[in-house]
Amino acid sequence: MSSSTGTTGTTTVIANIATLVTNDPSLGDGSPLGLVRDAAVVIEGDRVVWTGESSKAPATDNRVDAGGRAVLPGFVDSHSHLVFAGDRTEEFNARMSGRGYTAGGIRTTVAATRAATDGELEANLTRFLSEALRQGTTTFETKSGYGLTVADEARALRLAARHTDEVTYLGAHIVSPDYADDPAGYVALVTGEMLDACAPHARWIDVFCEKGAFDGDQARAILTAGRAKGLHPRIHANQLSYGPGVQLAVELDAASADHCTHLTDADVDALASGDTVATLLPGAEFSTRAEWPDARRLLDAGVTVALSTDCNPGSSFTSSVPFCIALAVRDMGMTPDEAVWSATAGGAAALRRTDVGRVTPGARADLTLLDAPSHVHLAYRPGVPLVSGVWRRGVRVV
Ligand code: NIG
Ligand code: FE
What we know:
alpha/beta; Urease, subunit C, domain 1; TIM Barrel; 2 domains; eight-stranded parallel sheet; 15 strands; binds N-(iminomethyl)-L-glutamic acid
């Protein structure tokens, strides 16, 4: 196969696609995935300029033959924690022998992250990013939250911002061990000096609203302070227990309420009434051996659902969106079509983006080629490395 160049003015057609997922219901079969059979995509520079049936494709400078395989938008992983050092193999081992998961394990990673050099942290980050890219992820969000001092949080965000625009300030991951006896003092730091140092490097602000982390009043204070500095809210909500996080997310028009594992009917109604996406993170339930979030209940209520990895060394040490799709289909009541939509267009919605997560004229040329005739194989063939080509901003990178 030839490679596209990503050079403006040069056009490349990817032809002979058995199934193309566009995520534009006005195209193809009219379903939410906008499936086009026997399809082609034309790329110019970093953009998609044409999609449709192969036989109708316009003339181009270059041609790539997809070999009768499936093409879909690059995955949009809207929730990860990739700026960290160390690992927590022993904690995972203990959990698989019956110990429960708590927010407290975060402290182990905080100690390792503080002790790491900038170079070590960035090398780690780069390693996980290339791992994710090989599995089809072309857009990702990532957070601070393992520094918990002014300098360590700002450094995490500065490093993350070198690699993505979707950077989230999570100084409120847990109360810093340095403030164990003064949680109010830590909230004052997170909403004051730490926020001032972090806001220039971030787009989003997040809080872990959970027993053992921050309660609803603290979360509201932190997110409101972030908003006053130009950051937009997103929340770790209702992961380990019922709580106020989801309703707070909707009240503050957060882009996303993440986890959503323990939901009351009122939580589901609130999500259905607003623009807050429910981001489900099945890697966390897998790796903590916890109850699955009920995607079917949310979808049937009309809630927009995103699927992401939550990649972090404690609760979900996977960078694989295909793995999360397979779990969501097998255990959370999603159809393969719904899971693929949630991992692409849903992730884009959770980041309030319209330029990624779809393959339509004007969208960023972020594409995944599967070694399979259809996107359904992502769930049908779990654990198999099906991603055989990735284009990011029009450039073939895998
Ligand atoms: O999303 N819930 C909070 N944060 C992470 C876990 C972080 C950790 O255990 O290190 C999560 O699951
Ligand atoms: Fe998380």
